[in-house]
Amino acid sequence: MSTVKFQEEYSAKIPALVLLSTLGYQYLSPAQALALRSNNNTNVVLTDILKSNLQKRQFTFKGVMHSLSHAALDKLVQEIQNPPLNEGLTIANERFYDQLMFGISVTEFINGQKVNPTIQLIDWQHPEYNDFHVTEELKVACIDGVNHRIPDIVLYVNGLPLAVIEAKRPDGHKDMIDQAISQMQRNQRIKEIPHLFAFTQLLLAVDGHNGRYGTVGTPNKFWANWREELIQEPEFHAIKNKTSPTKIVNALFADRKAADRQWFDSWLSGGLVPTGQDKLLVSLCRPDRLLEMIRYYTFTDSKNGKIVARYQQVFGIKALLARITQKDATGARKGGVIWHTTGSGKSFTMVLLSKALIFQEALKSCRVVVITDRTDLEAQLSKTFASSGAISDLDQSDAMATSGKRLAEQIGKGNERIIFSLIQKFNSATKLPECHNDSSDLIVLVDEGHRSQGGENHIRMRQALPNASFVAFTGTPLLQDDKTQNKFGPIVHAYTMQRAVEDGAVTPLLYEER
Question: Where are the beta strands (DSSP E) in 341-406?
C-alpha cells in the first residue's frame, strides 16, 4: 500500500505531468527545454521546435507550392520571440493572440517577384499536425536581470508556451489554489516574467484535489471552476488509469530520486480515482480542447481585459452551434432558448457565439441580428461587441438600426455582419417593401427573450426573416405554458441560479416574508 505524500511534488505535480503525457504531450526535462530555448533563460520559446514546425508550412504562388526560405523563417521566428512589451502585457498578449488566430505575413521573393504569404502558427483544423510538449520547473529570467521565476508546468504548442500550470500541495487549513493564483499574478508584473505571459492563453492553479482557471490579467475572484458536460465519468477514469509508456515514465523520473520512482509505482498499483484536478486538466488541456478554448472561447475586451469563457458559455455555444447548423423541412434554420441565469455573462456568450460563427465552415457566411427591447440594453450590447473587437467603432455605427427605415434597409439590402435593433422598430420597418430576407444565413439573437417573445412585433420580425434561426437568451424563461419555448424552440442549454450559486458565480439572495 502506498504512503500518502502531501508535498506538492507528489500530490499535484507528478500526477499532473503523468496525466498530461497520457493526453498526448511529449515530456521535456528542464535541461532539454533549456537546450531548445537556445540555452537562454530569457527566451521562453522552444526555438528549435518552432522552427521545425514552421518549416512544414507552404504557400501557393502562381499555382505552385513553395516552402519558406531560411531568411524568411529566421525573421519570422525572431518576430515571434520578441513580443512588444513596451505598451504593456495586455496589448502584447492581444497582438500575439491575433498572430495565433490569423497568422503572420512574411516577405518572400520567387523568381525575382515579391510575395507576402500569411503563415499560420497553429494548424487549427488538424490538431494532430501540431507539436505538443510539456515541461516542468521552467526557469525564466526576470526583466530586472537579477532574479528569476520558475513556473511549475508549462504546456507548449509548436514551441509556443500557451498554458502555465501552478501546482500546490493540498492543505486543509489554507486555500492553496489562492496562493497559486497570487503567485501567477505576481509573475505577470512588469519587473517579473511578463515575456512568458505575453504568449500564454490559459492559466491553471491546482492543488492535487481541485483547480481553477483564468487567463492573463484575470482578477482572483474571476478564476473559475469547471464542470465538464461532455466527458463522462467512465472516460475520466479510463484516461486516469491509462498505462503511461515506460519511455515517458523513465524520462519523468530520470532526474528524480529512486525513492520517488518507488513511490510512483506503488501509487499506481492501487487503482486511481480521478480528482477534480484531473478533470480540470483533461477538460481544458487535452490538445484538441486546449486549441478549441484558445480559438473560440478567448478574447480581449478593452474594458475588462483578457477574457476566457466559463464552462456554461462554452457548452451553451457548442449546443447552439450544433442546433443552428440544422434546418427544418422548409429550409429554415433551427433555433432555441439559452436559459442562463442573470449575472452569468449572457452578453459575452453572444460575443463568443458571433466569433465562433466565423470559424465554422457551414456558418461563416451567417449574419447576426441582435434584438433587444430597451435602448439601454441595446447600447450595452453594442458597446460590449465593440469593446471585444467583434465589431470596430466604425462598424458599430453602421450596425445600429437607428430607425425603422434603416432596419428595413439593413435586412433587405445590407451586408453588415452584425445588426443591432430594438424589436419595436419592426413595427415601422415591416411596412416597407425592402424589409424582407428569405436567407437562412441570418442568426437572430433575442436578448431577454422572455419579454420579447410576444405580441405583434415578434410576429412582424418572424415575417421579415422567415428562414432565420431565432435564439432567445433569458435568465427567467416564462415556463408556464412554455411561452418562451413555443416562440423560439426548445431550451438548448440551461444554467440555473442554483448552479450559479454552487459555482460561486453569483451571490444567493436571502429574504424572509414580512
Answer: 367-372
How do beta strands 336-340 and 491-495 pair?
A: parallel
Q: What is the DSSP string of 273-317?
A: ---HHHHHHHHHHSHHHHHHHHHHSEEEETTTEEEE--HHHHHHH
User: What's the mean pLDDT in 55-64?
Assistant: 88
Q: Is 52 exposed, middle or buried (0-12, 13-18, 19+ CB in 10 A)?
A: middle
CA–CA distances in Å: residue 491 to residues 102, 168, 248, 478, 514: 34, 40, 45, 12, 35
Query: Each residue of 137-151: pLDDT tens digit?
Result: 999 999 988 899 999
pLDDT at 4 over 50: no
**pTM of this structure:** 0.91
Give me the helices (H) in 24-131, please.
30-36, 47-54, 70-81, 89-102
Instruction: Choose the most confident range, by mean pLDDT, from 147-156, 259-268, 330-339, 353-362.
Output: 147-156
Q: What's the CA gap between 319 and 356, in Å, rounded?
A: 12
399 CA to centre of own chain: 26
Pairing of strands 160-167, 153-157: antiparallel
